[in-house]
Amino acid sequence: MSRTALFVALALVAGGSLGCEQLDGRNRVREGNRLFGDKAFVDAVAEYEKALTEVDDPIIHYNLGLAYSKVFRPGSTSNVILDVQGSFVCSTIPNVTTVSKQVCVKEGDKHFDACDDKNVCASSFRCEQTTLCQLDNATLADDSATHFQGWLTANPTDTETRGLMTQVWLDSSQYPKAIDYWTGLLAAKPNDPEIMGSLAGISLKAGDWRKSIEWYNKVADASPDVSAKVAAYQFIGNVAWSKLNSRSLTSADSVELADRGIGALQKAAQLQPDNPKPVGLQASIFNFRGNAHGASWAGALDRAAAADLQRASRVLIEKAKKAQGLPATPTPAAPPGAAATNDPAKTGG
Fold first, then answer.
1. Most CB atoms closer than 10 Å: which of 176, 197, 218, 219?
2. How far is Cα 127 from Cα 112, in angstroms, rounded to an integer?
3. Residue 278 burial by CB count (10 A; 0-12/13-18/19+): exposed, middle or buried?
4. Quick one: how far is CA 167 from the chain centroid?
């Protein structure tokens, strides 16, 4: 499905004609789609909101969810200015509040940049004290998710829209809402690897790496084939590497995370002994754990293990290249004046 606004094709009512409100609703959706295409997302929201009061159709919910997601500003905690008080936008979009500001004003423009003696408006704008309507950015995210859910109720298999809705929650740091939603899906389909994988990703985004690893282990347990199990264990290794590389953890947490990552990668290596990726990643994580242990016997053992795993990884990489008929990695040339170790005359061969 194209991720653009959809044209609502309203069914004809009995008798072969549309009622006045239904006809107006269809026209407003058409106008909303035109505005959406012109990137006038605030105006599109207003048209869709008005249409929805006249015709309750899942497609309008989808269009509204998408339009609200375009007005929403990921990562922002500020209110979003929509339009001048008294406009169609301000009177139609629900739950707006008003604010008085001195801004640059121009008919048809909705930037409303602040202005004063130092910040002068462009020549075609007027600097005026203006009453504007606004929405809290988190409310915009909620509105987007609410209308996406209106579409998903009628189209529960639309995974793309589910992904868009989840991303809105993540971009607005509303992780509990995303977790609650996906936990509900899991209750309906227990042990579904895809759902548990989504919960793992959301937990990681929320900063809970322990819960993320717990979910990825469940994905590995529930996955029916070896490659999927290995991929889940590899995800755990990637989580461990990424967090350890950030240098943001305490020494105790670093050791715990490294242990979990190494354990998962060892399972992956057992399932696919010829796969160099889990082995190479283990080497990196052993180095991280060695650094966390510091100048200790445990740290020295970890660094030695890392060196052994790096060598094993290189052997597996060369083995994979040979199996694919690719040229082996050339042996580095000896420095000038050094003895050539592959010369039988120099080795007694």
1. 219
2. 9
3. buried
4. 5
E strands present in the chain: 79-84, 97-105, 126-136
Are 60 and 8 a contacting pair, CB within 8 Å? yes
- In Å, what is the CA distance from 12 to each residue of 9, 16, 214? 9, 6, 52
Per the CB < 8 A criterion, the answer to whether 320 and 274 are in contact is yes
Return the bridge partners of 128, or none.
103
Contacts 24+ apart (CB under 8 A), 87-93: 87/133, 88/46, 89/42, 89/43, 89/45, 89/46, 89/133, 90/132, 90/133, 92/46, 92/49, 92/50, 93/42, 93/45, 93/46, 93/49, 93/133, 93/135
Say how far apart CA 278 and CA 270 lie, in whole Å.
10
The secondary structure of residue 133, as a DSSP letter, is: E
Residue ranges of domains in the chain, CATH in brackets: 20-141 (no CATH), 156-323 (1.25.40.10)
Highest mean pLDDT among 19-28, 225-234, 290-299, 330-339: 225-234
Is the Cβ–Cβ distance between 202 and 177 less than 8 Å?
Answer: no
Helix axes 251-271, 226-245, angle to 10 degrees: 160
Q: Tell me the sheet residues that pair with 114.
A: 103
List pLDDT tens digits, range 93-137: 999 999 999 999 998 898 999 999 999 999 999 999 999 999 999
Beta-carbon count within 10 A of 28 CB:
22
Give me the sheet containing 97-105, strands edge to edge.
79-84, 126-136, 97-105
Task: Output the pTM of the full model.
Answer: 0.81
Contact 155, 58 (CB under 8 A): yes
